[in-house]
Write a structure and sequence with these properties.
Elements lengths: L9 E2 L6 E2 L5 H6 L2 E4 L2 H12 L13 H10 L6 H13 L4 H8 L26 H18 L1 H7 L1 H15 L4 H9 L6 E7 L7 E6 L5 E8 L14 H21 L1 H21 L5 H20 L3 H13 L5 H14 L10 H19 L5 E5 L13 E6 L9 E2 L7 E2 L3 E2 L5 E7 L5 E6 L18 E6 L4
Length: about 475
């Protein structure tokens, strides 16, 4: 299938729909992609922004529209739904894609009810949403909408949403993501693919989905906006295409991973045992999430190759290595080989045995590599210490093996220590850097990072990035 893309922008008011463009709804429903400005997403983003979730308070989300969001909704920061949202984040980790998952499971903003029962737990609703907590949250959210005149706010900003949509439409016109997905993953009858926009989300984007009672599915790529021109219009770079593919791919990949945890757990959990700290720093806090992200990123790599974008594919692999996903290129090779040999109707599920084998081989290789990867035996001051003497003259790191000449002390700003010239001792195992500290102050920096990895063994194997934090005591 090679569908012509039809773009329309819709907001749900009073349980109905208001179409912002002239494209007929019927034509859009028959097309491959729907581009929406969705008030359910806006509501979740605003609530979790007020609750203090960092991912919904990104500095790059600032624009005239989010300035208006702050002006209108910030006075309601003490509303019960905001307090509940903050508690759900603390107790259950409701953050990042979890609010978006709930958003697409809602029937609109008139009743703000779930489209399917909570018991049993809906197949595609994020597991962090517990039944009683979700019911309480939605009850409070309905009151929040009433107290803040949320629907009136949406009505006032119709032109803003339309402008956002037009900017995206101009960028992706002619791009045929759906036919590529159907060719790669296999056709899914009844599938609706929806592209959502949210300025409140800034630089964060998410992929989620909703499974209808009839077994058909809606898949969503929720794109944040973080760059604007002088007129306040969003600017979308070519990297947007990879981002759209990435977020849509989650709706194909995640169900496969989660349905086959028993087959994948041994190998992927061993791999996570090596890279878990680095993954967690990027909000990939479980082996399941790491497995999903691996397969999604390999899908993006294959997409870039298919688009004959060798330079972008190479840059993508470089960034994946920096983020800890050094095996993405090899998995993309496996996927490419698989699709050349598969039967026409085979989808991603038939790839599962090869995926299990791939993770097993990768885990074994990284376990061998770990044997020659440098480790830290001790650090002065010890990482996490809260009563460091402010007169301490140097920071010292003792490694378990000789290191090559080089280092990456990464960070900056007022909480980065003032440092002198670093050096190693004669054994190349003890690294020291002179510092000037002040009393009653918190310090933080990184030994290596995703981008800079010059702390490496004599054999050239880099230290996995480590975040160093400590506090000095008062004089």
């Amino acid at each position: 299938m090679n569908p012509k893309l039809v773009f329309f922008f819709i907001a749900l008011f009073l349980g109905g729909s208001l179409v912002f463009s002239s494209s007929p709804l019927e034509a859009a429903e028959k097309s491959g992609i729907q581009v929406l400005s969705d008030p359910r997403v806006e509501l979740m983003s605003i609530v979790f922004r007020l609750a203090g979730n960092p991912e919904y308070n990104m500095p790059n989300s600032k624009c005239p529209y989010t300035d208006e969001v702050e002006k209108v909704f910030r006075p309601f920061s003490s509303h019960p739904v905001v307090k509940t949202a903050a508690r759900l984040r603390r107790e259950y980790g409701v953050s990042y894609d979890a609010p978006m998952s709930l958003a697409v499971h809602l029937d609109g903003i008139q009743k703000l009810k779930l489209r399917v029962p909570l018991a049993p737990h809906p197949a595609n609703l994020d597991k962090r949403w517990k039944q009683k907590e979700t019911e309480l949250f939605l009850e409070q959210a309905r009151d929040f909408m009433k107290k803040t005149a949320y629907r009136q706010f949406l009505k006032k900003h119709e032109k803003t949403y339309l402008g956002f949509g037009k900017s995206l439409e101009a960028k992706i016109r002619g791009q045929n993501f759906i036919s590529w997905f159907e060719d790669f993953f296999g056709e899914r009858p009844g599938l609706q693919t929806r592209l959502l926009l949210s300025a409140v989300n800034g630089g964060q984007s998410y992929g989620t989905s909703f499974l209808r009672p009839d077994g058909s599915e809606e898949v969503y790529s929720i794109i944040g906006m973080y760059e604007y021109d002088g007129a306040g219009r969003p600017v979308f770079r070519d990297s947007l295409f990879s981002l759209i593919v990435h977020e849509f791919a989650h709706s194909y990949v995640n169900p496969l991973i989660l349905a086959n945890q028993d087959k994948l757990e041994d190998a992927v959990s061993r791999l996570f045992g090596i890279f878990g700290r680095q993954m967690s720093e990027n909000a990939y806090g479980t082996w399941q999430i790491m497995a999903c992200e691996t397969l999604v990123r390999a899908t993006v790599q294959l997409y870039l190759r298919d688009q004959k974008q060798a330079d972008k594919a190479a840059l993508h692999l470089k960034r994946m290595k920096q983020k800890g996903f050094g095996w993405v290129g090899a998995l993309a090779d496996e996927l490419d080989d698989y699709r050349k040999q598969r039967k026409q109707k085979d989808g991603l599920k038939a790839f599962l045995p090869r995926l299990v084998e791939f993770f097993e081989k990768t885990a074994k290789r990284e376990e061998e590599r770990k044997k020659v990867r440098p480790a830290i035996l001790s650090m002065t001051p010890a990482n996490g210490t809260t009563d460091v003497n402010p007169n301490l003259a140097q920071i010292q790191v003792v490694f378990d093996r000789p290191m090559r000449q080089g280092w990456s002390l990464v960070g900056g700003g007022k909480h980065h220590p003032e440092m002198g010239k670093p050096s190693y001792d004669s054994t190349k195992k003890i690294f020291s850097v002179p510092v000037k500290l002040k009393p009653n102050w918190a310090y933080k920096f990184w030994l290596n990072s995703q981008r800079f990895q010059n702390f490496a063994s004599a054999e050239g194997v880099s230290l996995l990035p480590i975040k160093v934090e400590f506090k000095t005591r008062g004089k």
